[in-house]
């Protein structure tokens, strides 16, 4: 399973607030059925690589449907094939290391 950190910024909205666009993006992710976690600066989504990559144009389209003319996206993908991987598993792993220190 792969994990993708995704940050999408609509440009030219006329407002510094982008919360409505984030909500639209989350609706796209929810419809996909993939696991995700909203963060303050990006959203993490887990699934097969192909599933994750299919989300990006759908999220862009959701922004364009609101009338923006430009969308900037930053994506980071961890595609681990040698061991199971999940958002919560990665967080638990680091938390456990902190407790042992």
Automatic annotation (TrEMBL):
Residues 4-94 form the Thiamine-binding protein domain. One of its GO terms (cellular component) is cytosol. Coiled coil: none annotated. SUPFAM superfamilies: MTH1187/YkoF-like. It holds the Pfam family Thiamine_BP. InterPro entries: MTH1187/YkoF-like, Thiamine_BP, UPF0045_domain. Gene3D superfamilies: 3.30.70.930. PANTHER family: UPF0045 PROTEIN ECM15 (PTHR33777). Belongs to the UPF0045 family. This is MTH1187 family thiamine-binding protein.
